[in-house]
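Weekly structure sync, notes
Attendees: PL (lead), two postdocs, one rotation student
Agenda item 3: pending single-chain targets
PL asked that the sequence for the first pending target be pasted directly into the notes so everyone works from the same version. It is reproduced below exactly as submitted, 232 residues in total.
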Amino acid sequence: MVKDDPAELAFSDYWNRKYVKQEGKEDTYDWFRDWGHLEVWFKGHLTQRHAKILHLGCGNSTLTADLHTLGFTNQINIDFSDVVIRAMEAKYKGLDTVWKVMDVRQMTGFLDNSFDVAIDKATMDSMIHGSMWDPPADVRENIARYLGEVSRVLVPGGLFLYITYRQRHFMQPLLAREDWALSVETLNDQEGGVFQYFAYIMKKVDEEDWEGSSDSTKESGSDTGDERFYAE
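Predicted structure, written out during the meeting:
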């Protein structure tokens, strides 16, 4: 069997082909832990039910619906695969939420300072290939473009929550920015597994506070359609 080229994961054509193959079979999949493993963690970090939440590269995860059951009804979901967006919009048509085809590296459809929270489960990982010790130029460029857009659309004080299996000594240099404070939590497996996941939490700071901001790291044993969004 010929393996996929990891670099292809950064392109919508790859995911469109993948989701077309899944039609009529697997209609949901959650990367890097499902809601059962992450519910407690999300409850600890999402405390305002009125928060405007942006799902970055939503795929066919159940996360939007899971958060909706907790009262988070102000959610927008984007993915650059039009195949999965159409499928999810049809599946969750009963939810008062929005599904849009959009590339996270170019979110020109959204105004600056539009969202309180942005969530990524595996989207950034799809941009990563090659050596983590010395990432290729396209990896650095894609991540830089992506993080710049996330920072732009977050309000000051807004949170960017990123869940991955990639360890901090690899990710912190890629995630560090002057305009947010970075912390990391380890998501231990309550079921006794040895494989760890990590939650990177970026809090956007006010421009005047940039010089005083610094990265911080902490361990955690827990296992845990508004028109104002849019640019003209």
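Discussion points:
- The first helix runs from residue 12 to 22.
- The radius of gyration is 17 Å.
Action: rotation student to compare against the earlier draft before next sync.
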